[in-house]
Every structure is written in structure tokens, then in C-alpha cells.
Amino acid sequence: MVREVAESCVESLMAEIVSSYCRGVYANKPELAAPRIEAIGFQVGHRLSERYTMDRPRFTDHLEAIKFICKDFWSDLFKKQIDNLKTNHRGTFVLQDNRFRWLAHMSVDPSVATSGSIQDPSTMAENEAAQATGLHLYFPCGIIRGALSNLGIPCAVSADISNLPACVLSWYALKPEDLVPTMITWIELLV
């Protein structure tokens, strides 16, 4: 039995999560909202990759896992394949989606962007759009990081938007020596 959720519900939920964390929970400290949104995405990606790979044998190498993310996982999640995948063959991958579905319906109110400003209205609107959209990209970055982590590839994921709704997600695999300080930091926080 396949259970699916309407895409409009997912988009609305994602927008509400971002709004709730930025304006409600972390209204006084907006810099704390981004890691929390990314952490929620991480949990979602981890669980989705577990579900999507349940009937498959374990991947034997990182390349098979990357192919799975770019072909099957991305297609299942966004109903299209990625437009471009590049790598430097040293653990860095750049995934490009020229029409990222979760950004296709994003817009910014220009009256909010230009109120009380001396700067050029178009520049302010672009800055506001980039900032607002950037917060919405922490969730998909977390999804990709969680999925890769579940497949045995610890990594860092970042997103870049230059022209809506195009999106470029970059990730690089973390080496074991890169993971040690992070683990120590988390242990210190728990004590």
C-alpha cells in the first residue's frame, strides 16, 4: 500500500515550519532557526531513505549511493530527475535543479521589502527574496544530508539560489577526521 501526500500540503507545511521557527519560536534569535529547520529535514531525509531502500541490497560504494540519491530519491521526492550533477572526484558534488518544485511558487511582497528603505527597491526586493528563500532551503538541505547519512555518507550540504526557481545544492563528504570535532562538541553540550 502506497501512501502519498498532496504536494500542496507539503509546501504549506514547509512554509509554516519556516514561519513558525523564524517568527515564533526563535523570533529573538533568528540565527537559531536555520539549524533547527535543517535538523527537521535531516530526520525526514533519514527516514525517507530508509523507506526507499528497504527492499534494496546495501550499496557497495559511495557512487551507487550518489546515483540512488540523484535518480531514484530525487525523482520520488520531487517528481523529476535532477538537471545536472557535477563532481570534482574528491568528494564534492554539485546538484542542479533548474525548476526546484518547492521554490516554484515562492514570492516576496515588494511593499515589505521597500518600506523605510533608501536603497534601490529592486535590489532590496532581491535581497529580501534571497533571504526568505534561503531559509526555505535549509529543509531540503537537511533532507539530502539525512538521506546520505543513512546511506553511510556523512556530509555537509549547502544550497545556492541565483535565479528562482533554479537551485544548486552542493555537498561534500566529510572525512573521519572532520567528524571527530563535531562529536566532541556534541558530547560537551550534553555534559
UniProtKB/TrEMBL annotation:
Domain of life: Eukaryota
SUPFAM superfamilies: Ligand-binding domain in the NO signalling and Golgi transport
Pfam families, sorted: TRAPP
Family the entry assigns: Belongs to the TRAPP small subunits family. BET3 subfamily.
Protein name per its UniProtKB record: Trafficking protein particle complex subunit 6B
